[in-house]
Structures are given as structure tokens and as C-alpha cells.
Amino acid sequence: MSKKRIIVVGNGMVGHNFINTLATSEYASQFEILTFSEEPRLAYDRVQLSKYFSGYTAADLALTTESEYNEKGVIFTLNDKVVGIDTHAKTITTASGRIEGYDKLVLATGSYPFVPPVPGKDQDHCLVYRTIEDLEAISASAAVSKTGVVVGGGLLGLEAANALKAAGLETHVVEFAPRLMAVQLDEGGGKLLRRKIENLGVTVHTEKNTKEIVAGEECRYRMNFADGSFLETDMILFSAGIRPQDELARKFGLELGERGGIVINDFCQTSNDDIYAIGECALWDNKIYGLVAPGYQMAKVAYNHIIGNLITHIPSELAFKGADMSTKLKLLGVDVASIGDAHGRTAGSQSYVFNDDIGEVYKRLIVSADGKKVLGAVLVGEAESYGTLLQLMLNNMDIPGNAASLILPATDGAAAVGLGVSSLPDTAQICSCFDVTKGQIQEAVRNGCHTMGALKEATQASTGCGGCAALVKQVMDAELESMGVEVNTDICEHFAYTRAQLADIVRVQGYSSFEQVLEGHGKGEYGCEICKPALGSILASFNNEYVLKDGLIGLQDTNDIFLGNMQKDGTYSIVPRIAGGEITPEKLIVLGEIARDYDLYTKITGGQRIDLFGAQLHQLPEIWKKLVDAGFETGHAYGKSLRTVKSCVGSTWCRYGVLDSVSMAIALENRYKGLRSPHKIKFAVSGCTRECAEAQSKDIGVIATEKGWNLYVCGNGGMRPRHADLFATELDDDTLIKYIDRVLMFYVRTADRLQRTSVWMENMEGGLDYLKNVVINDSLNICEELENAMTKVVGTYQCEWKTTIENPEKLKRFSQFINSDKADDNLAYVRERGQRRPATELERIELVDLNSK
Amino acid sequence: MSNWVSVCELKDITPGTGVCALHNGEQVAIFRVSANEQLYAVSNYDPFSKANVMSRGITGALGGRVMVAAPMYKQHFDLATGECLEDAEVSLKVYPVRVNAGQVELG
Ligand code: SRM
Ligand SMILES: Cc1cc2nc3c(=O)[nH]c(=O)nc-3n(C[C@H](O)[C@H](O)[C@H](O)COP(=O)(O)OP(=O)(O)OC[C@H]3O[C@@H](n4cnc5c(N)ncnc54)[C@H](O)[C@@H]3O)c2cc1C
Ligand code: SF4
Ligand code: FES
């Protein structure tokens, strides 16, 4: 039997989703799949497009790769537009002149940005926002512009405004309607959103109808509005809505809607049975769906119908039945959500409104005439209840308890009104991006996915917009519980708590010793090598006492207990702090002299400082005395604590530097040195976007811009590198430090044992948005406490080595033997490139032989 | 019967830590697991890392057995018997130890 030929026109998000479903299905071998893309690359994540401006590359956004398509046998042609369809011969023609036959043709041509027919709109620096090429053009234009205007105050327009602002432009939004996001928000919500966005420095102009774009006086252009007013700008970004890309259907006789869009039936067939249309180009029940989830749903329907028609000959029952257009997103850092009937248009509907001008939160809940069902909602400024409200609406469930409490802020002590996931039907769609139901999540959990990571991989749930993450986790946890799987998060057999819980216990009870915690909350009388260092670290984080103090010393791990890093032969390395990597020649000479005198192997570390290896226990105090006398301090290379703050040379010398990165790095290193934390913490500060200090791979990364510091958090090098997330932009010195104080203390309080900030972030419910909310908006009302805790640590800093060498009692331990001055006789070295290193086992045997001869 | 030799004073060993003594040419790790006079003594040589470092390990208990975790790669050794909890083939030599009039003595 010859293979069936499917041609997919357009390789956007939905076209790719269709191809992926078909190419990975059990019927894949019976098909030949061809796809044509007008764009120069295969499908990428348009939903996350704006991340391009925070450093994502085209490769980061890609949904697939050419090699993946090759492996799956998908034949693709890029940069070639389909320009003709012959419905009788069942062929298509491309711009390059290719003609290919099909059994079924799938149109997934998406949409294009609508540009209002304003005279002057076709000039340079008048752009749109849809493809990676558009973004490249925007970047190029922004680089030579000072002011930018976005035409259109809808969802995409505000995203575009964010991009312009991030690019450092003075940003304006011009909207025709009287308010922002008129489709999704009511008046109150639109008003608050406007206020919030204006506070962020974006100027909003509503009820403005652009008449023409002419040459400007101060800027490149002047936009003249119908009401006689005008606005000067260097660039213009049109984001006034989208139009379905129905060009092919129009030219080749497929039925169109009155205002465009390719008409489809419930099986996504167009007026020609062998031609399907899916995604944003398709018009179902006179509606275009401008979101990706309904497109994926259509792809699934079309796939099933094609299989039924060509292969199994069993008619598919899966039909497209419309889709929910609720959305939750973050616009310029403001949480905005719109659910169902946001405008209260349903007959007899009633609403509750909560408006907090001080906290800048607006919520409106629309309920049915009988007050029992949720019909819709508008949330601005805080959208945590989105998941709950959406499920109540989608599943037509009765409102549990008092409806008003669904939007009222949780009062102290009382838990926020949530929705027990157990009350949801199994068919409830939890993840709308990938159409994953509660039942599917439960099944995956039963099949062994016991972590969010595994679950995401198996079901794709929560890998799109991420809006469903909290709910997915609740379903998983509930299922695990019902399976009787004890999710054992106990730190060890002595404490039935997680590290975060132990941290709370220590903090709230004000404990200062391991014994107090063990007696009050643990089992047994000794503890072990897991709980002792963990509690040692927690006690140090909050109390910041000398770690070798009696009572604390026994808690210290291998390296901390002798304030050095133990090497493979039992000797130690010495790493003095060289804040920001800046060092005077005098200090370099001291290091050189000490290294020479003690014959220490010397190496520049990956953290911009100098490591001296091979010191024996009894030598450590002598060496440190010399270092301390020369003005050095401990570098905490041994501690789960701040390691280094890398810097680039910055504005003092570098011809590109915009801020003094070295001074900032030194200030940060000196502020946080000595802070004990769940794992080590690394920082870097770069003087401009060239990023020579590699700040985006650090737990805390700081990059200078013309307008202040950009703060990145939760990056990681090491075993599993993670690109840091952009956390806040254009900060002044004080705000930068304030945010870092808060982030670090929140990490100290809530992370697991030996969990770097990267993994902490990945496991945090609500992720980056949640962290921002806690740190920037003080949503938990703990920022003052966090700052005070950090102030305490900063104020109680001591150089542990200085304290140690001043304390003769403590020095007794620094020798190989308690009863002899002899050295360990098991050490053996060879010389390599002029320095010594531990002998290998083979070399040891030879050395012994030599000695005995 | 063994000859008890004094190696240091009890107060030289901070509760919760260990020290190493040179005893008849052998390196012996002596641990004081808690604040009382109970001591344990085993060989200071870590058979896994092949370095003389056992006295620098963290002590504690696992399933009721008092143990020390090797500082290098964290294998556990039963302090009473010297047995390695992860590998029955490996064990540390155990030495008699006692406190006599404030002196720590090895036998
Ligand atoms: C000395 C140094 C290598 C060098 O010669 O350059 C080094 C040496 C060690 N690293 Fe490192 N790391 C060193 C820079 C790094 C860097 C680069 C950096 O900081 O810019 C990284 C990747 C960046 C990062 O951490 O995100 C790095 C990622 C690791 C990791 C993996 C951490 C992770 O999250 O995946 C470990 C293992 C661990 O911590 O569990 C580790 C652990 C270690 C340990 C502590 C292993 C051990 O337990 O003995 C090494 C002993 C240090 C010693 O004896 O002094 N080291 N290590 C560097 C010391 C920098 C300093 O001045 O303090
Ligand atoms: C900045 C931005 C943010 C967004 N945010 C969200 C969001 O948060 N949530 C959400 O759900 N949705 C969001 N969307 C919408 C979402 O991206 C779209 O719904 C989705 O991409 C639609 O997929 P599609 O395959 O139908 O169209 P597209 O992804 O546009 O793909 C169509 C492809 O077909 C190509 N093509 C067209 N005609 C031809 C032809 N004749 N021959 C060959 N190729 C052709 C086009 O060049 C294009 O590559 C956003 C969109 C943008 C631009
Ligand atoms: S990051 Fe910028 S300022 Fe720093 S050294 Fe590199 S180019 Fe210069
Ligand atoms: S709803 Fe978007 S990822 Fe689940």
C-alpha cells in the first residue's frame, strides 16, 4: 500500500503540533508528511516570543530542530511560500515553483498583524510584532531610537510595550478604545492596569485615533491624532490586532467568513473535504481563536479525523466544540487574568468587586443569577485565585462557601479559600495549553511520575504558559497521598522535617544549639552527618555565631571543621578572599611568598582568586596568621556560603562599561561574605551587556545598563547549568541590595538542604512570578523581617580565621596528633611543572622502592 | 592484659569531635560522641580514600549504631566494632580506650 501524503502549509505552533502528533503516532509509517514554511526556520514558541528580549535565542525558542524532523521523516522546506492550490488535481504550488500532490491538505497559516491604513505607516521604523525577524528589526530600530510608541493597548500591545521599555526606550501606548485590554477587562480592571503601567513609566494615551504619520521635529516621526493632538516618536510598533492568514483560501475558492477566516466544521474541514484548516487561520462558529490552546485542540481533532478517514475507516467522534478564552498573564510585571464572561453579559448575572487602591489590586467576580456558579472574573494586580476560579467555571461547579471570599484577600491565619482538587471531575482540564485532564495526570502519577519534573515530561502539563503549575502539583500530591505513597521529605532518621521546616523551627523558637532542636523535635541522642551539618548551617544562618564554638564545632562538615578544603590526601587548600577579583601587587607578593615558603601548589581558581594547596593541619594557623597580618580574610571556599562575586573591569577602565562593576562586586562580596546558606552562593557583576563576568550563570547576577542595574537570579554553572532569570531591571544601588537581601534570606529560609538557588527556583510553586511577588510586592508581608535578618548577619560578620588564630584553645586541634608534633608520614609528592602534587598510587610504590634502596 | 597509655586529657576532646593520637607508631582516631566520658577509638586510616583522616569525620548514630562518617566520601563505620555499614568486607581496627582520672588512655 502506498503511503498517504499529507501537506501542512505553515510550520507555526499549530502546524508543528499537528505534524508532531502524526509523526509520533502508531500510524506514522503509513504517511508521508511534507510541510512548507514561509519563515526561514521551523516552528518556535511564539507565546514566549518576548523572551527574545531577555536573552532567549532563536534556538531557545525552537519547538523542534531540523534533525528531529529528519529523524521522524518529515520533509520540510523553509523560506518557500505556498501560493497555489489545485483542488481538482490535489496539488499545491510554491513560490519557488514546486508542485506537490496531497491526499489531505492542512492549512495552518496562522494570522498576520493588522496595521491600520494610516498614511505614513509603511516607512522605516514602523514595525510589527509577530516573528523572530520582527523582533530583530525592533532591536535594530530601538538601538537608534530614544522614544517608541505601541499602537494598540491590547494583550500583545502591552507585551510589546514591555519589550520597548526593556530596550531602554521612553515608551508610549496609544489605544483607540477608552481603556486598556478592552476585550478582556472591565472598566475597573482596565483603570487599575493603566495606573500600574503608568507607574512603571509607560505613558498611556486612550481614545486616540491616529490620522497620519509625518516627519517629526524632536523625533523621527510625529503621529497626528484625530482629536488634533500629536505625539513625537522615533519608532512605531503596530499591535492593533490580528487577521487570519486566509489568502490561499480566498484565491482558491474555499469558503470564508464575512470578516475573513477559513470556515471549518466541527472536524476542522474547510468547504473542501480534503482540506483542513487549524489554528489562527480557521473560523469556527464565526469565531477566530487567537490563542494557542484552541489551535492544539483543532490539531488533535483534524488528526483524528484524517486517521479515521484514510486509515481506520472508523469515523472519528472527536469534534471541536469551541474553547475557553480565559487568560492569565503578566504584563510589565503586573498580574492580569480574565476568565469567562468578564464583562457580565450573561442575563441576570451579578458581581462582586474588590478594589484595593493602596495595594493596587482589583478583582471582579461574576456569578450566575442564583449566585451559585462562577461565570467569569477579572483579576488585576494579584491573580493567585485564577486556577480555582477557572475550574469552578469550566466544570460548572457550585461555589464552595461564601462567594465573596473567593476574591477577598486571606486574613491572617485563615487559609485562602482554595478548591480541593478532589472535588474536580476526572475530565476537568487542568492544563489548557496541552489539554491535559485531571484523570491523565492521575494516571501518569500512578504509572510512576512522582515529581513535577517526571510529570511534565510524561504529560507535557505545565510546560506551556505555566499557569496551571500549582494545580498540577495539587493533583499530583493528592494522588500520591491516595496511593498511600508517603512522600518522605524527612531530612534523615532523626528529624521528621524538611530543611525548610527545621529552619522555621529554629527561627521561631530562637534555638541556638543542636541539642535544643534534637530534644524538642528529633529522635535519638546523636544525630548524624546529614542533620548535624544541616542544622549547623541553619543555626549559623540565623545566629551567625563562630562556627568552631563549643557545641557548634561537632556539627561542621569536613571542610568547615578545619576552615579549609580537604584534599585527596588529607591536606588542605587555602583560599583567601579576593573580593571582586581585585588584588593589589603587594598582596599578590604576600601570597607568592607564602606559597613559596610552604611549597604550596598555586593555582588561579575559576572564581577569580588564588588557591594554595597542600597545607598540613599544623601549618594552617601559621599560614593564616601571615595572611591575616597582611590584611587577608577567609574566603569561605569551604563553606556552604557566599563564595565569590566575579566582576569584569567595568566603567573605570573598559571603554564600553556603563557602571562601576568592580566597586559593586566588592561591595556585594563584603556585604554577604560569611552568610551561611543551604548551599554555596555565587555572584557576578558585569559592567555592560557584553557580560564579561558571566553573571547570567550565577545565583545572583548583576548587569549594568545605562539606567541602572539589571538583576538576574537563580543561575547555575556546574553539573546542570541554568540560565538565570531576569528578576528586575534598572535598579539603583539601594534597591538592588534590598532585593538581593530579600531573595537570599528567603532562599535561606525555604530551600532544601544542598539545594542551589537554581533547583530551588525550579521547585518553587509559582516560580519566578511567585518569587517576584514575595520580594518585590511583599505578598507574604515578610520583607522587613528578611531584611532585618540579613542586617543581623552583616552586622555580626567575623573572619573565622582571625578569631581562630587569636584563640589558643582552638588551635590545639590543628595538628595531626594530639600527643605528638610529628607530621602524617603517609604524604608523598612528586614535582610537575615546577610545583608539587600528590603522588599517584603507582608513583607511591615506586617512591617507597626508591626510599628503601 | 594491655598496657594503658595516656595520650591526652579528656577536656582536649570537645564533645562531638574526634582527635588523632600516635600510639605505638599507629594513628588512632579517638571520638567523644557526646558530653559524657564515653569514648571510641578506631584506626585513623580511611580505607576508601587511603588517607589518615578518620578522626575528622562527623559522629552520630544510624539505626541505633553509634558511627562516624568518613570525612572524604562519607562511608559510615560502626564505632564499637569498626564495621563499615556500606561494605561488609571493610572494617577499621578498633582500639581499647578509657578515661582514667581525666586522662584519655589507649590500650
Ligand atoms: C578550586 C576550584 C577549581 C579551580 O581550581 O578553579 C573548585 C574546586 C572545587 N569545587 Fe568547584 N571549584 C571552583 C569553581 C567552580 C565553578 C566556577 C565558578 O564559581 O565560577 C563552578 C561552576 C559554577 C557554579 O557553581 O554554578 C564550580 C562547580 C562546582 C560544583 C557543582 C555545583 C553545582 O551546582 O552543580 C561542585 C560540587 C558541589 O558543590 O556539590 C564543586 C565542588 C568543588 C570542590 C569543593 C569539590 C570538593 O568537595 O572537594 C572543589 C574543592 C575546592 C578546594 O579544594 O579548594 N564545584 N566550581 C574553584 C574555586 C573557586 C573559588 O575561588 O572559590
Ligand atoms: C507576541 C505574542 C505573544 C503571544 N502570547 C500568547 C499567549 O500568552 N497565549 C496564547 O495562547 N497565545 C499567545 N499568542 C498567540 C499564539 O502565538 C498563536 O495563537 C499561535 O502561534 C497560533 O499558531 P498557528 O500555527 O495558528 O499560527 P503561527 O504560529 O502564526 O504559524 C503560521 C505559520 O504559517 C506560515 N505561513 C502562512 N502562510 C503561509 C503560506 N502560504 N505558505 C507557507 N507558510 C505560510 C507563517 O509564516 C507562520 O510561520 C501570542 C502571539 C504573539 C505574536
Ligand atoms: S562586561 Fe562590558 S564593561 Fe565589563 S569588561 Fe566586558 S565589555 Fe567591559
Ligand atoms: S495551562 Fe499553560 S502550561 Fe498548562
UniProtKB/TrEMBL annotation, chain A:
Residues 430-477 form the BFD-like [2Fe-2S]-binding domain. The gene is nirB. The keyword Metal-binding applies. [4Fe-4S] cluster binds at C648, C654, C688, C692. Residues 326-395 form the NADH-rubredoxin oxidoreductase C-terminal domain. SUPFAM superfamilies: FAD/NAD(P)-binding domain, Nitrite and sulphite reductase 4Fe-4S domain-like, Nitrite/Sulfite reductase N-terminal domain-like. The keyword Iron applies. Its cofactor is FAD; siroheme; [2Fe-2S] cluster; [4Fe-4S] cluster. One of its GO terms (molecular function) is 4 iron, 4 sulfur cluster binding. This is Nitrite reductase large subunit NirB. GO terms for biological process: energy derivation by oxidation of organic compounds; nitrate assimilation. Residues 567-628 form the Nitrite/Sulfite reductase ferredoxin-like domain. Residues 639-775 form the Nitrite/sulphite reductase 4Fe-4S domain. Belongs to the nitrite and sulfite reductase 4Fe-4S domain family. Siroheme binds at C692. Binds 1 siroheme per subunit. Homodimer which associates with NirD. Keywords: 2Fe-2S, 4Fe-4S, FAD, Flavoprotein, Heme, Iron, Iron-sulfur, Metal-binding, Nitrate assimilation, Oxidoreductase.
Automatic annotation (TrEMBL), chain B:
InterPro entries: NirD, Rieske-like_NirD, Rieske_2Fe-2S, Rieske_2Fe-2S_sf. GO terms for biological process: nitrate assimilation. Keywords: 2Fe-2S, Iron, Iron-sulfur, Metal-binding, Nitrate assimilation, Oxidoreductase. The keyword Acyltransferase does not apply. One of its GO terms (molecular function) is 2 iron, 2 sulfur cluster binding. It comes from the Bacteria. Pfam families: Rieske_2. The keyword Calcium does not apply. SUPFAM superfamilies: ISP domain (SSF50022). This is Nitrite reductase small subunit NirD. The lineage of its organism: Bacteria, Pseudomonadati, Pseudomonadota, Gammaproteobacteria, Oceanospirillales. The gene is nirD.
